[in-house]
């Protein structure tokens, strides 16, 4: 059984948040050595269980959730590490389908902080510059400690950004990986072309690991080539997940034709029933190299078909066998996807989606079209966006898709002010009926009206917290 190899000064949950907030000053550091050294100082908790790693611009959180749920249905004790949180920091670490307790979260942060202190003390003694230990470095090491102490069998790790330098890549027990797709996001750090970003994500593909290349890696050909070249270089044979029909992956594919690779194993899926309303059933038939699963159902929009299918293939590859069909059906239909086409108020209906870049917004819009084809009958859209995103690209997609907009600003320091967002939205043809300086004020104004809210994970989180009154999701 894993034990922390040093004494730790305890922290309260609030104090652990202060530790994380203070680390924000270091921003993002493209290096793994700090996390690797901290894990070593902690006694290698990441070697106490196996890991699955998932990267991708969009869809990786849902794929991670479905993977964790499917493996739990197979009888494994499963941990899940995702980011960012929707409402509360401890949501980033889940064990057996629930966020870890706040005292356990605080303890794991305390261990990670002490490991960082010891590592930097040793470096200074050697005349080396101490590491700038980031928020995500600390969280990732803390997650490994929490999962080891809980004696999990497997941890599903969602990359925070990219893959090559992502802190999750420091885990030494990664057996299986998947890349859901590639879009233009975090371009300042990952590169300003799809091919450059693909290269960063493809770095998680390494010798000895199984690999699934999701729908979003298929186009354009120049992007798919990046992944296939990487697989050849490291001696990995990937399973290619591709839709049987292009419209089954609406919003998931970049421009370009789907190529056929007869020398590689392929998994396919076909949507046999599209949901006709919010909360309606999505039914998918999936064929993998190991089995066929017909009638897999989720109370989700059509874009989740690609994520469910990717999770099924990834789970098979990790286990090295086909799945129990009955357990699979139960695991998928009951799996929560907080913030993803998520109904947070039943009447009048309030729905949130955490789409936050043009690609994920296009996927969200495709789901809205499936529920209500007539733009005039769609509810008002509550919109708040972060200033460092492609705001105009987001507005250009959304403007013709909703009859009216209510524009607001989240509490994030990165939030774009409501007046600037309203101006861009109007320039793109959107009908802005009102602006509010906070999400809470906007929701008060919409208390007796149906609405959809999107634009950022922060937007989804604030709406969820206000309407659900919960720190769980």
Describe this structure in words.
This is tetrahydrofolate synthase. Residues 339-446 form the Mur ligase C-terminal domain. Residues 54-207 form the Mur ligase central domain. Its EC number is 6.3.2.17. With 473 residues, the chain is an alpha/beta fold. It folds into 2 domains: 44-88 and 151-334, Mur-like, catalytic domain (UDP-N-acetylmuramoyl-L-alanine:D-glutamate ligase, 3-Layer(aba) Sandwich), CATH 3.40.1190.10; 342-468, Protein-Tyrosine Phosphatase, Chain A (Alpha-Beta Complex). Helices cover 37% and strands 18% of the residues. The protein contains 15 helices and 17 strands. The protein has helices spanning 13-23, 33-41, 60-73, 102-125, 135-149, 187-190, 194-202, 221-234, 304-319, 325-334, 358-371, 391-398, 418-427, 439-445, 457-468; strands at residues 50-55, 78-81, 93-95, 98-99, 154-158, 174-181, 210-216, 239-243, 266-273, 282-287, 292-298, 342-346, 349-352, 380-383, 405-407, 432-435, 451-454. The strands form 2 sheets. The protein has an 11-stranded mixed β-sheet with strand order 4-3-2-5-1-6-7-8-9-10-11, sandwiched between helices. Strands 12-13-17-14-15-16 form a 6-stranded mixed β-sheet, sandwiched between helices. The two termini are 31 Å apart.
């Amino acid at each position: 059984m894993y034990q922390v190899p040093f004494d730790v000064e305890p922290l309260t949950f609030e104090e652990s948040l202060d530790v994380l907030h203070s680390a924000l000053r270091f921003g993002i550091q493209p290096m793994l050595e700090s996390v690797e050294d901290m894990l070593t100082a902690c006694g290698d908790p990441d070697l106490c269980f196996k890991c699955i790693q998932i990267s991708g611009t969009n869809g990786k959180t849902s794929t991670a959730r479905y993977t964790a749920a499917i493996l739990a249905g197979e009888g494994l004790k499963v941990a899940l590490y995702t980011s960012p949180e929707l409402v509360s920091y401890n949501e980033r670490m889940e064990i057996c389908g629930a966020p870890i307790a706040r005292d356990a979260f605080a303890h794991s942060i305390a261990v990670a902080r002490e490991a960082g202190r010891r590592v930097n003390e040793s470096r200074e003694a050697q005349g080396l510059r101490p590491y700038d230990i980031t928020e995500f470095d600390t969280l990732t090491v803390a997650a490994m400690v929490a999962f080891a102490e809980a004696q999990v069998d497997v941890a599903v790790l969602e990359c925070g950004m990219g893959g090559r330098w992502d802190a999750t890549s420091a885990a030494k027990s990664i057996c299986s990986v998947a890349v859901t797709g590639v879009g233009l996001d975090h371009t300042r750090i990952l590169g300003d072309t799809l091919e450059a970003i693909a290269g960063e994500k493809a770095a998680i593909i390494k010798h000895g690991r199984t690999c699934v290349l999701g729908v979003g890696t298929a186009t354009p050909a120049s992007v798919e080539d990046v992944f296939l070249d990487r697989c050849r270089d490291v001696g990995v044979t990937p399973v290619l997940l591709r839709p049987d029909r292009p419209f089954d992956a609406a919003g998931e594919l970049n421009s370009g034709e789907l190529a056929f690779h007869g020398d590689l194993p392929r998994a396919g899926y076909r949507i046999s029933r599209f949901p006709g309303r919010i909360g309606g059933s999505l039914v998918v038939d999936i064929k993998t190299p190991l089995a066929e699963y017909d009638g897999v159902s989720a109370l989700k929009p059509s874009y989740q078909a690609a994520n469910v299918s990717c999770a099924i293939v990834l789970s098979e590859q990790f286990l090295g066998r086909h799945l129990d069909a009955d357990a699979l059906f139960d695991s998928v239909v009951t799996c929560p996807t907080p913030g993803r086409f998520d109904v947070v108020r039943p009447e009048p209906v309030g729905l949130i989606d955490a789409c936050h870049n043009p690609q994920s917004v296009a996927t969200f819009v495709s789901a809205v079209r499936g529920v209500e084809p007539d733009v005039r009958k769609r509810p008002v859209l509550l919109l708040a966006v972060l200033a460092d995103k492609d705001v105009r690209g987001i507005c250009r997609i959304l403007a013709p898709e909703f009859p009216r907009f209510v524009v607001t600003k989240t509490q994030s320091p990165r939030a774009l002010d409501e007046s600037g967002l309203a101006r861009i939205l109007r320039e793109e043809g959107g009908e802005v009926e009102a602006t509010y300086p906070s999400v809470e004020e906007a929701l008060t104004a919409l208390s007796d009206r149906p609405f959809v809210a999107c634009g950022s994970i922060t937007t989804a989180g604030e709406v969820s917290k206000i309407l659900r009154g919960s720190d769980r999701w």
